[in-house]
């Protein structure tokens, strides 16, 4: 993994990270998903996924599901 999520990662950098590693696509296809399941599905280390999710929730790109341990998109992302 060439890109790392840190506490100083900007929102724009996190969007690129999510696109580069297929995180948005994976959430869109899987529906409400835990950070651990998202990490397994994409091959991104869970610590990186957790940092990414934290930034995405703050930016309101990703929301917590009915179960607060699960995350989902708040809108439909086009599937390719």
State which percent range the strand residues make up. 5-15%
The CATH superfamily is Winged helix-like DNA-binding domain superfamily/Winged helix DNA-binding domain
Radius of gyration: 11 Å
Structural class: mainly alpha
Query: In total, how many beta strands?
Result: 3
Instruction: Count helical runs.
Output: 4
Describe this structure in words.
This protein is mostly helical. It has one domain: Arc Repressor Mutant, subunit A. The chain is built from four helices and three strands. The chain has a three-stranded antiparallel β-sheet. Strand 2 and strand 3 form a beta hairpin. The mean pLDDT is 86.
Quick gist of this model?
The chain is built from four helices and three strands; from the N terminus they run ααβααββ. The chain is mainly alpha-helical and 80 residues long.
Keywords:
single chain; Arc Repressor Mutant, subunit A; 3 strands
Layout of secondary structure:
Blueprint: H1 11-20, H2 23-30, E1 33-34, H3 35-42, H4 46-58, E2 62-64, E3 70-73
Antiparallel strand pairs: 1-3, 2-3
Helix pairs in contact: 3-4
């Amino acid at each position: 993994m060439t890109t790392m999520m840190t506490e100083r990662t900007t929102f724009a950098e996190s969007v690129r990270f999510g696109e580069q590693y297929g995180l948005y696509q994976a959430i869109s296809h899987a529906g409400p998903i835990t950070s651990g399941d998202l990490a397994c599905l994409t091959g991104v280390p869970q610590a990186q996924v957790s940092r990414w999710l934290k930034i995405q929730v703050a930016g309101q790109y990703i929301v917590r599901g009915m179960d607060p341990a699960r995350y989902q998109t708040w809108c439909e992302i086009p599937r390719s």
